[in-house]
Amino acid sequence: MTAMDPSKLQLAIFADHEHDLWGVILAGANASIAIGTLQTGALTPEPVKLTEDSGTWLLEGADCELVVTPTPPSSRTPQDGAIEPCQLAGTLTLAGAKRPLQTPGVRGTAPQPAAGGSLRLFGSWFPAGQELGLLALRQPGAHSGVEDQISVTARGEEQPMVIDPRLSTTYSGAGEPIRIGLELWLGEAEPTDDAELLPRRVAGRASGSSASVGSLRSFAFECVTRGEPGAGVYVLATAPPGKALAA
């Protein structure tokens, strides 16, 4: 077994539209999980024992026993592998009933946002097999999404290259994400003038469930892509100017 890297923010997210379920896992010294239905309301995170074995996360808690295993993407941006698809399997207790869990997710590793910076992680999953994960890092002093460092990982797409991904977010007066739009282009290689690129767009709206896990705020989303309904999770971490987030 190996210990988690304390200098990094490590987390996993997942959602299942068919089974009305979503969750977020925060790794580290104070590992925890929040899990519930898409409309549960505010979730209370539960502590878990989390260890890593050859890239696989092992979680043990009062209400869950889960294994989180990385899975290969079918498509991705050329940036480093800050996020990756994963598979969650095991059991959990929800509303007093023990139930099996086997569902895809997205796992990410990133530096804690510096003062004035932010992190946004969005994942969405659809019954036909499309899985999309996007990590957007904004450096202190940046004021536009054009300047974000964006990584994307996907499964269920035929084209291996993700090109020009964009994430737009509408926030409530309280600063919580309530609607999102994700747009990216897929191709066989770097684009040229005559390259054929296929679009993938996802729209989503907050479904009413949320959780604060460590320094992260997480929100369940109902999503749609090409007319197919699915579910998603939006994670937001911001550090006000002059104050970095606590690990």
Topology:
Elements lengths: L7 E9 L4 E6 L5 E5 L5 E2 L2 E2 L1 E5 L2 E6 L2 E7 L4 E2 L6 E12 L2 E15 L6 E8 L5 E8 L10 E7 L5 E11 L5 E11 L10 E16 L2 E10 L2 E11 L9
What integer is the average pLDDT?
89
Number of strands: 19
**Element-level helix/strand string:** EEEEEEEEEEEEEEEEEEE
User: The biggest beta sheet, please?
Assistant: 10 strands, mixed
| Helix percent band | under 10%
Kindly estimate the percentage of residues that lie in beta strands according to DSSP.
over 45%
**Inertia-based shape:** globular
Uncertain residue segments: none
- The total of helices stands at 0
Distance between the termini: 22 Å
Rg result: 17 Å
Structural class computed from helices and strand pairing: mainly beta
- The number of domains is 1
Plain-language structure description:
The protein is mostly beta strands and 247 residues long. It has one domain. 0% of the residues lie in helices and 62% in strands. It has no helices and 19 strands. Strands 4, 9, 12, 13, 14, 15, 16, 17, 18 and 19 form a 10-stranded mixed β-sheet that branches. A 9-stranded antiparallel β-sheet has the order 5-3-2-1-11-10-8-7-6, with no helix packed on it. A hairpin with a 5-residue loop joins β12 and β13. It is globular, with a radius of gyration of 17 Å.
